[in-house]
Amino acid sequence: MTQFRPKYVTFDCYGTLTNFDMAGAARRVYGERLSPEAMTGFVEAFRGYRLDEVLGPWKPFLEVVHNSIERSCKRIGIAFKPEDAQRIYDEVPTWGPHPDVPAGLSRVAKEIPLVILSNSMNNLIMSNVEKLGAPIHMVITAEEVGAYKPLMKGFEYMLDKLGCGPEDITHVSSSFRYDLMTAYDLGIKSKVWVNRGHEPANPYYEYTEIKDIGGLAAAVGLETALKRA
C-alpha cells in the first residue's frame, strides 16, 4: 500500500461506487425473449458498444444507451424498440452503492475531499451520489465536460477545476479501459484499482489494488492516522 496522501481523491462513479447494473437491466428487459446463451452474448455486446459510443463527439447518455442497445439487437438478431432502451436508462438513477461504499467513503471523506468524474448527465448523477452515504466535494459529469471517459478531456477539465496537477490526486476506479489507462497516460502516479471483477488485473498501469472501498483509507495513507485518532 502506498502512503502518498493526496490533496483530492477522485473517483469513477458508475461501477466503482454505484452498483451500475446495466447487465441486470438488460436481462430484465430481454431475458424472456432470449435464450441464456443469446442473453450472455447480448450483455457482452451491450458492454462493448457502450464503450464504442462514448469515444466520439459527446452525445446525451440516453443516446449512448439507445445506440448501444440498437446495435446489440442487430448483432443478436432481435427487433429493437426505443422504449426498451428508455426503460434501461430510466433504471440508472435508482441504483445505489455497492455495500462497502458508504462506510469506506466516509472514513476517507473526514480527511480528504472526494471528487467524482462520471460518464453521466447533470440531471442523472445526483440521485446516485445522494445514495453514496458520504459527503462529495465536487461532481463533474461528461455533460459538463463535453466528453466521456476514456478521453483525456474530462481528466484535464477536472484538474483545472480543482487547481491542481496529476501529482496531487489519487484516482480510484474499477475500470482500466475507462479510467486507469487514461490516468496513467496523463501522469497520474497514484491510482487505485477496485477489483470488482469487471476486468482482469493489468500491473503495467502501476496501481494499488483493493478489493473494495473499505481498503481505500490505507491506500491513501490514512489508516495509521485514523487508528491513532
Characteristic terms for this protein:
229 residues; alpha/beta; 11 helices; 11% strand; EC 3.8.1.2
Q: What can you see in these coordinates?
A:
Strands 3-2-1-4-5-6 form a six-stranded parallel β-sheet, sandwiched between helices. By secondary structure, it is an alpha/beta fold. It folds into two domains: 146 residues, HAD superfamily/HAD-like (Rossmann fold), CATH 3.40.50; 73 residues. The two termini are 20 Å apart. Strand 4, helix 9 and strand 5 form a beta-alpha-beta unit.
* Largest sheet strand order: 3-2-1-4-5-6
Taken in chain order, the helices and strands follow as EHHHHHEHEHHEHEEHH
The low-confidence parts are 225-229
How many structural domains can be distinguished in the coordinates?
Answer: 2
The Cα radius of gyration reads: 18 Å
Largest sheet: 6 strands, parallel
Q: Taking all residues together, what is the mean pLDDT?
A: 95
Structural class of the secondary elements? Answer: alpha/beta
Q: Which fold name fills CATH's third level, the topology of the largest domain?
A: Rossmann fold
Tell me the CATH architecture of the largest domain.
3-Layer(aba) Sandwich
CATH class of the largest domain: Alpha Beta
What count of helical segments does DSSP give? 11
Roughly how much helix do the residues carry, as a percent range?
40-55%
GO molecular function, one term: (S)-2-haloacid dehalogenase activity
InterPro entries: 2-HAD, HAD-like_sf, HAD-SF_hydro_IA, HAD_sf, S-2-haloacid_dehalogenase
Protein name: 2-haloacid halidohydrolase IVa
Pfam families: Hydrolase (PF00702)
